[in-house]
Amino acid sequence: MARPNTTKKAAARPHIEQRAIANCRRSSIFNVTGRARFRFLLLFTITGVRTINSRTYKEAGVDIEAGAALVEAIKPLARSTTRKGVLGGLGGFGGLFDLGAAGFKNPLLVAATDGVGTKLRIAIAQAYHETIGIDLVAMCVNDIIVQGAEPLFFLDYFATGKLDVKTAKGVIAGIAKGCTDAGCALIGGETAEMPGMYGQGDYDLAGFAIGAVERDQLLTGDRVAVGDTILALASNGVHANGFSLVRRIVEETTLDFDAPAPFDASQSLGAALLQPTRIYVKSALGAVRAGKVKALAHITGGGLIENIPRVLPDAVVAKIDATTWPMPAIFRWLSAQGRVPPMEMARTFNCGIGMVVLTAPEDAAAVEAHFRSAGETVYRIGHVVAGKQGPATVQITGMEAAWAGQGSAS
Fold this sequence. Notes:
With 410 residues, this protein is of the alpha+beta class. The protein has two domains: 64-217, CATH 3.30.1330.10; 229-403, Alpha-Beta Complex (Phosphoribosyl-aminoimidazole Synthetase, Chain A, domain 2). The protein has helices spanning 7-11, 64-79, 119-126, 132-145, 165-182, 243-251, 269-273, 281-289, 303-307, 329-338, 342-348, 364-373, 399-403; strands spanning 19-25, 37-43, 107-114, 150-160, 185-193, 203-214, 229-234, 260-261, 264-268, 295-298, 316-321, 353-359, 378-386, 394-397. A hairpin with a 2-residue loop joins strand 8 and strand 9. The chain starts with 6 loop residues before the first helix and ends in a 7-residue tail after the last helix.
């Protein structure tokens, strides 16, 4: 807005108008210099005078010192995730990665991005921020590995109305832990402090992962055939989807998140729900590179019903027996307390299965043994049969007998 050039014109504007937009950027976290770069826009008019009053960025709601303190706090976290392929260089505008140095010869790049949904609301309510970053990494890197790719590096976006260094450091510590578990480097990110955009104490997260796979090892599901065995890797809990329904169910009880979990008195309900998403990268990578895995499916939003079809070719369907694995207590309680029918459970939650593995029947024993030796709990849950794709692409039998009535409402 142009400033009035006469006192008479200024008098026609009997008000002071202010707007502020702010953003704080972490450039390359791994190679930070300790400087934070900020963008600021302050537009105003002042009644009847030509003099402009002094203003500071902090008065507008952006704390430069807090941003700088966070940068210093997270530098060692990012350094702890370094791996072959990460290139040095301080103060760059972006992170660098050398595919050749990482051992790739004819690679394809695979990209994934995700968030953690309203699981954040529970983390914020519990003031427990140290594991939600693991969820963020897991949601991205598990989508990378299902295509046969190795996650190489990760970037995060952390947005809040007022930056709390302790909270942000806790979140990013979880992100660094997730990156270490997945074998990828945390090479960059963005911290956005945006006054007026979020409620007090609130923040939001997004993650971005890049992986690579040799061209001849890409998993597309095109090799899946009638007779193939379907294996399942156990989940760690609810993981990071379905929390809008979870929160609604909890709200309809007399429980709060600090109360003992009705299905496990050894921990609070909040702690049970905040169990981080399991990362399957390291256990799956060896089996994929051995050529014995035909397809992988990450079981997130949409559950078993919507995720398995994403890796099935035409003219085949998945036939699954719900009695072949135990429904974890947390899901039995959610089903009973929320009166959620078995089919709705199967299309909303992972129901105890975080990853599905499809392999030839003659390779099933070896693949199962590999995953068990890598620390996974493995179930044989079904096989691939001929059929027309559509609403019945995933046929789950035995749900009513295996799941219904197993939980108890509080």
